[in-house]
Amino acid sequence: MDADRLSVAKSTHSAGILGIAFLKGAVGPMKQPVWHPDSLAARMPFLHRRAALTAATRDFFLTRGYQEVETPYAVAAPGEEVHLRPFETQRVYPDGREEALYLHTSPEFAMKRLLVAGAGPIFQFARVWRNSEGSALHAPEFTMLEWYRPDQTLAGLIEETTALMRAVLPPVVTSRGITTDLSRVECLTMAEAFEYYAHADLLGTADDAAALAASAGIRLRAGEDWEDVFFRILLDRVEPRIGRECPTFLTHWPVAQAALARRDPADPRVAERFELFVCGMELANAFVELTDPVEQRARFAIDRHRREALYGPSWPLDEDFLAALSFGLPPSAGIALGFDRLAMLAGGADRIGQVLWLPPADLA
User: Fold this and answer.
1) Sheet with 74-75, edge to edge strand ranges
2) CB 346 within 8 A of CB 173
3) Does domain 33-185+246-363 have CATH number 3.30.930.10?
4) By C-alpha distance, which of 350, 361, 303, 348 is closest to 50?
5) What tens digit of pLDDT does each residue of 297-333 get?
6) Residue ranges covered by each domain of the chain
7) Whole-structure pTM over 0.70, yes or no?
């Protein structure tokens, strides 16, 4: 996922001078600070709509028998995704012991522990943190709406997600100049999308980067592996053309791109995962959950090896989560939905900073 890098900050003294000069009108077309009344007033229509959206979303889940939960934000292991960078912190115990902690990038592991304990169906509005992110669609701190239901299927989760959108959003939504009609949805498998939009044989070229590139009619770049080519085709050929006229559920991802989802019993080459696109942007990511602790440990090992090869040593493996899986995660499905992006759709915003009460200055 692309992320804008933050600029190097000026000294406190210089920043203070610039702020005073700006407020006096001595500096040119600089943005107003996010605390300025005019800046907040510009965001207020979006924020009022966000508040109504929060209430409607909570009501949607409560009336469907879900329990709202809260889980810790500072954790010993923030997840195993290869390219997500967490914020680091530290706990100091009363006896002086110290423990490295991280602000979580998702509440997924914690909520699955609750499923093991018998708490499901559950949902959460979770604050999450992802370092090195910042753009019109990405904030380093944002709100994730996650929900899990035992015995849910992929088709059932698609149906429920569609019902949520239609319950809390206008019938037609517009963001960033793209208008999407929610009255119908489309479901495309990843293999179908690659064939239709890139004329590429996704599953027939598994682990063969040159074959996948050739099937898509593109040149294999030096050092590219199969995953690199997969994501290049996905980002260049597929994603720009889906979720525009109507929402698109992009389903059945290759197993290597779905580390926490179970294999499809009908085709073990793919996993029961979908991503949802609306107004041309990714809105949600969902799995029928992998419950096998042995396979989960093996997939974690692969991702940890890749992450550490790219970014160096990381946090310890989450043995407590694997212990919970061994105890018994019930068959279930879950989804992570970017709530700030849902608020953008609800209010017609074009930038994530418009739907945040106090956005970072670079995203305002």
Assistant:
1) 74-75, 98-103, 87-92
2) yes
3) yes
4) 348
5) 999 999 999 999 999 999 999 999 999 999 999 999 9
6) 33-185+246-363
7) yes
